[in-house]
Amino acid sequence: MLKFNEIEAVFFDLDDTLYDQLTPFGLALEFCKIEASTLNIEELFKRVRYFSDVLWKLHTKGQMSLEALRVVRLTSAFKDFDLNITKEQALAIQERYEYEQQQIQAFPGIIEIIKDLQKNKSVVGILTNGPVHHQMNKIIALKLDQVIPKELIFISDGIGIAKPDKRIFEYVQRQIKIKPDKCCYIGDTWENDIAASIEAGWNCIWFNHRNREPQSIHTPNKIITDYIGVFS
């Protein structure tokens, strides 16, 4: 059982954990006039996230460029629903998606939760995969840079290690000088956030607002679908 009074550090994943990533994705599809009226946009989005996580491993090994990753994750996800889009369409969706991500807002209550944790003397930060500039733009759009110090924002491309490699959690531990059993991670994806943090010896909370199924025998300390009373 997770004893929050014993936790000294709380780190959040960024994408689809601190804000709703589905909203900018849906707006990008609408703007690009992609004919996907017969399919569930959330289910399509889940497949995009799935392929993104799979292909990210190739990207971190230098086997796939970031542009190729973004194209393939979209074309592959659409193909799973018997829909075909061109490379040009995929790039157009990505371009609009990045624009819409500058209009994002944090999930209700997140800023207050962070401030309350900080008042209780917890170290609070962000640990996310992705390009530094791209992820920082989202953090700034969410105004999270105003409540979380820059030295507690860890982005994989700036470190050279990416989730699900547990070494990225160990890197964070060394920077904050807090033992893993005193750290808690909150994230939405199973392999990158839950399994990886458990493997690193951290406590973790699965923010399962997309109703995904576990993919391994790892057991999170807590499962939530919203942030109401999460630390009570």
Chain-wise SSE layout:
Elements: E1 9-12, H1 22-31, H2 41-60, H3 66-79, H4 87-100, H5 110-119, E2 123-128, H6 132-141, E3 153-155, H7 156-159, H8 167-176, E4 183-187, H9 190-199, E5 203-207, E6 222-224
Parallel strand pairs: 1-2, 1-4, 2-3, 4-5, 5-6
Helix pairs in contact: 1-4, 2-3, 3-4
N-C termini distance: 13 Å
Give the overall pLDDT as a whole number. Answer: 93
In the residues, how many domains can be counted?
Answer: 2
Order of helices and strands: EHHHHHEHEHHEHEE
Shape: globular
Could you describe the 3D structure shown?
- The protein is an alpha/beta fold and 232 residues long.
- It has two domains: 4-19 and 105-224, HAD superfamily/HAD-like (Rossmann fold); 22-103.
- The protein has helices spanning 22-31, 41-60, 66-79, 87-100, 110-119, 132-141, 156-159, 167-176, 190-199, and strands at residues 9-12, 123-128, 153-155, 183-187, 203-207, 222-224.
- It has a six-stranded parallel β-sheet with strand order 3-2-1-4-5-6.
- Strand 4 (183-187), helix 9 and strand 5 (203-207) form a beta-alpha-beta unit.
